[in-house]
Specification:
Blueprint lengths: L1 H10 L2 H15 L8 E2 L6 E2 L3 E3 L4 E5 L7 H13 L7 E6 L3 H8 L4 E7 L7 E2 L12 E6 L9 H11 E8 L11 E2 L6 H8 L6 E2 L4 H6 L4 E5 L7 H7 L7 E5 L2
Parallel strand pairs: 5-6, 5-8, 6-7, 8-9
Antiparallel strand pairs: 1-2, 3-4, 9-13, 10-11, 12-13
Length: 253
Amino acid sequence: MKSIISFVIRYIPRKYLQLVSHFFLRVLAVFYKGKQVQCNVCDHQFRKFLPYGRKARENALCPNCLALERHRLMWLFLQKETPFFTKKLKVLHVAPELCFIERMKALPNLEYITGDIESPLASVKMDVHQIPFEDESFDVVFCNHVMEHVDDDIRACKEINRVLKKDGWGIIQSPVYDLPETIEDKTVTDPAEKERLFGQRDHVRKYGNDYAVRLSLSGLKVQENLFVKSLDLETIKKYALPDQEIIFYCEKG
């Protein structure tokens, strides 16, 4: 199972996976029946989650809604640390994750808009370098696992800062490695070399410990929130949460 999932996510473009993967995984869910873990995004229980990743992580992917560890952590953070589920908010979700779309769309307090340059799941076709909305349009912007793909991450973050309202906030997650600073080389175009240097064939940089500082160059106020450290071990185990994930919480600058 690990090798199959690793091969699929490595070589099949994400836009195609988004359309069909959930149908196959829901079939697999039958074989994972149990009550040892629970997905707090969709509330389904399993004996364990599916492995996921190029170097497959055990107990990672919910076979019902496709939420990963980071998605379950973010959902819990939104519930416990923000007014996301109660306050009237206009939300822009860039490159929306399948596990979130219908659930966020169904929240009666949200005006929820999704946007992406290629995802078939998004309602608005847009380039994050040129977001097609007026200044101060949104209360909240989510943009997760996008910045490692884009040509100019600072410009993209400037656009997010521009469309946030004065008291607006957002979450901008990316893979961050234990490196002193971000590795970037725009002369690298070979997919195999990109994978070697940046961890994935469609990545253009590998973020280091300067991630928050780097994004702050856009004008955003970026905070490193260690929310997961506030949770008890029982909760972390129940939802199979990552124990080291930093939530990069941003406010308009």
